[in-house]
């Protein structure tokens, strides 16, 4: 019948519309200029959604769809991505970054050596499957003044800070930007610290402060990250890190390691108190290593009497919240009693080690196996001592790991000194005594525990079958950003640049990641050379049989969950966007079909 045939034709036509009238959202992060998307042989302009995020919706007839982005800059110049992207029908619309082909990359899972630290709450900030974008806007004159006064450790400038990821954009209008580090303040590529990352009830994924580490000494950019990963494998407290590309006042600054600020109270409560607020004010001290400070150039946690003016105490600095007392009072009233307790433990007056023991031994194992040049056991410094007063518990917290895995120091000593004879004799007028370590390891059961931890690492996470796939995946994620970083001018206004010869190329990056090379550019051992030789020498010393494949009996270290909502506030608005492909039906088309149908019946 004519009626049935008409119904069939209308159903087929409606199905065709439903299948082919898909609106697809395209989203791109662009720091400068106005972007557009090239798709379906057309150029579609994009509009700002929440700077630096731009969006456009395009009707797509067939999947997968191929596309790329272009940008028109303020001077009318035009730049188009030199590659094509591909989107499947059911793929979510991510915030892609202009000029970077890799948006999200899932890394191989890594086996745990031990269970996670019991009081630690992971932050979704440190989802490392993408490179974040940090955009900083501040007064340029104030910024230049900070660049010109690098010796002023407390100088900072007010700033607006925008954090963008593939899922969200978060803006913090009342942040503060400062220069981070001490020995690295003289280099061309500076490191930064940012605090006050909070708006009303919203924080940056339960963090209010971060550090942006330049990694100027490491052509792979990976050593600091790998060290933190291994502490995670061990279940020891660790400053978490991921990668971020950084722009200041619209200018590209480079690729950085976005890391926790250890002395920040928000980090401390998320690490040591399951995210809950502390009920009391807790002291925290930092110890640095200063080879030019003689005497008193290092913090060995030794007890040198009650005179707080002793040069061996000058290396400790109070980093807590209480500013009502002078620093020397904090050292006298809080730190010296701990050092005295360590001394009493060493002398047998007390049989209780005065710091949390399990993580302390794990830090020692990590320093030894990772070749931590500037850390407590080798060159006493770059660590924190924190007390949870309510629990009456002191914690050692290691920090700053960029000089590791074959970078810095005496390569031979760091690679081949046996665990039984560690630390190596540095010949720099530094005593080899480490009072808490020496006291702890004088007990045979503790020495056996240290050996057990190192042995366990060789069988699980410090294994080529675990580390190499992770290294390669991380390298694939950041390769484009590394090449970009190496091409950028540096912003320091220092007239006497230190490490000025440390200029790397993409070849140096790839050699460090993929090659087994004893001494490459600037005498750096490649990652693979260090890892393979360390495994072989340590396994031989301990009599360890390294398995062909890493053990995974405790499961794997999990990536923080990809979720856009802070437990303390709302996410950026782009985090609530719908999926990449939305079914739509044109009402005008359906109306026309109905009129056509009625006219046909009447006829």
Mean pLDDT: 89
Range of helix content: 25-40%
Count all strands and give the number: 25
Q: Give the low-confidence spans.
A: 563-603
Overall 3D geometry? globular
- Our count of helices gives 13
Secondary-structure-derived class: alpha+beta
What is the radius of gyration? 28 Å
Residue share in β-strands: 15-25%
Q: Sheet bearing the most strands, described?
A: 7 strands, mixed, barrel
Output the strand order for the largest sheet: 11-12-13-14-17-19-18
Q: Report how far the terminal alpha carbons are from each other.
A: 14 Å
Q: How does this model look, in words?
A:
By secondary structure, the chain is of the alpha+beta class. Among the domains are: 1-21 and 585-603, no CATH class; 27-101, no CATH class. 29% of the residues lie in helices and 22% in strands. The chain has 13 helices and 25 strands. The strands form six sheets. A seven-stranded mixed beta barrel has the order 11-12-13-14-17-19-18.
Task: Spell out the blueprint of helices and strands.
Elements: H1 2-20, E1 22-29, E2 34-39, E3 42-45, E4 47-50, E5 53-60, E6 65-72, E7 78-80, E8 85-87, E9 96-97, E10 110-111, E11 132-138, H2 140-148, E12 156-164, E13 169-180, E14 191-195, E15 198-199, E16 202-203, E17 210-213, H3 223-234, E18 241-248, E19 251-260, H4 265-272, E20 284-287, E21 316-318, H5 327-347, H6 357-370, E22 383-388, E23 393-398, H7 411-416, H8 435-441, H9 444-459, H10 464-486, H11 506-514, H12 527-542, E24 556-557, E25 581-583, H13 587-602
Parallel strand pairs: 1-9, 11-18
Antiparallel strand pairs: 1-5, 1-25, 2-3, 2-6, 4-5, 6-7, 6-8, 10-24, 11-12, 12-13, 13-14, 14-17, 15-16, 17-19, 18-19, 20-21, 20-22, 22-23
Helix pairs in contact: 1-13, 3-6, 5-8, 6-9, 9-12, 10-11
């Amino acid at each position: 019948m004519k009626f049935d045939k008409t119904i069939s034709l209308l159903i087929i036509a409606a199905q065709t519309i439903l299948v082919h009238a898909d609106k697809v959202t395209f989203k791109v992060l662009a720091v400068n200029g106005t972007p557009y998307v090239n798709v379906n042989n057309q150029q579609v302009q994009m509009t700002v959604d929440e700077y630096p995020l731009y969006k456009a919706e395009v009707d797509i007839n067939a999947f997968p769809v191929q596309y790329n982005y272009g940008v028109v800059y303020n001077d009318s110049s035009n730049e188009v991505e030199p590659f094509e992207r591909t989107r499947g029908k059911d793929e979510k619309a991510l915030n892609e970054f202009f000029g970077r082909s890799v948006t999200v990359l899932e890394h191989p899972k890594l086996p745990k050596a031990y269970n996670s630290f019991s009081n630690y709450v992971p932050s979704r900030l440190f989802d490392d499957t993408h490179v974040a974008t940090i955009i900083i806007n501040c007064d340029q004159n104030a910024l230049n003044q900070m660049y010109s006064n690098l010796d002023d450790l407390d100088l900072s400038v007010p700033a607006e800070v925008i954090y963008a990821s593939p899922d969200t954009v978060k803006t913090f209008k009342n942040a503060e930007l400062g220069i981070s580090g001490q020995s690295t303040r003289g280099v061309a590529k500076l490191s930064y610290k940012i605090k006050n990352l909070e708006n009303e009830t919203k924080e940056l994924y339960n963090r209010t402060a971060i550090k942006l580490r330049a990694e100027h000494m490491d052509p792979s950019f990976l050593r600091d990250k790998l060290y933190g990963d291994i502490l995670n494998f061990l279940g020891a407290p660790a400053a978490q890190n991921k990668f971020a590309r950084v722009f200041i006042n619209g200018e590209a600054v480079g690729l950085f390691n976005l890391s926790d600020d250890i002395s920040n109270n928000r980090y401390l409560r998320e690490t040591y108190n399951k995210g809950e607020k502390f009920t009391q004010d807790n002291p925290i001290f930092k110890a640095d290593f200063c080879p030019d400070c003689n005497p008193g150039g290092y913090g060995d946690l030794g007890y040198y009497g009650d005179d707080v003016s002793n040069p061996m105490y000058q290396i400790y600095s109070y980093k807590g919240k209480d500013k009502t007392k002078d620093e020397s009072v904090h050292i006298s009233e809080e730190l010296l009693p701990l050092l005295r307790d360590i001394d009493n433990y060493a002398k047998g007056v007390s049989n209780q080690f005065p710091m949390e023991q399990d993580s302390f031994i794990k830090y020692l194992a990590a320093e030894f196996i990772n070749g931590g040049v500037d850390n407590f056991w080798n060159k006493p410094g770059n660590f924190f001592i924190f007390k949870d007063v309510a629990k009456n518990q002191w914690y050692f917290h290691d920090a700053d790991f960029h000089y590791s895995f074959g970078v810095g120091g005496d390569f031979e000593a760091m690679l081949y000194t046996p665990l039984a004879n560690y630390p190596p004799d540095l010949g720099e007028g530094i005593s080899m005594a480490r009072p808490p370590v020496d006291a702890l390891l004088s007990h045979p059961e503790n020495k056996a525990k240290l050996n057990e931890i190192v042995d366990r690492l060789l069988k699980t996470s410090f294994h080529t079958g675990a580390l190499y796939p992770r290294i390669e995946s991380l390298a694939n994620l950041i390769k484009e950003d590394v090449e970009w970083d190496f091409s950028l001018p540096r912003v320091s206004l220092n007239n006497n640049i230190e490490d000025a010869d440390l200029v790397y190329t993409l070849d140096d990056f790839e050699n460090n990641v993929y090659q087994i090379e004893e001494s490459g550019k600037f005498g750096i051992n490649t990652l693979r050379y260090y890892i393979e030789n360390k495994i072989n020498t340590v396994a031989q010393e301990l009599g360890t049989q390294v398995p062909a494949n890493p053990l995974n009996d405790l499961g794997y270290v999990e990536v923080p969950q990809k979720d856009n909502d802070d437990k303390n506030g709302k996410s950026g608005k782009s985090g609530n966007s719908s999926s990449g492909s939305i079914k739509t039906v044109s009402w005008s088309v359906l109306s026309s079909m109905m009129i056509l149908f009625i006219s046909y019946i009447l006829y």
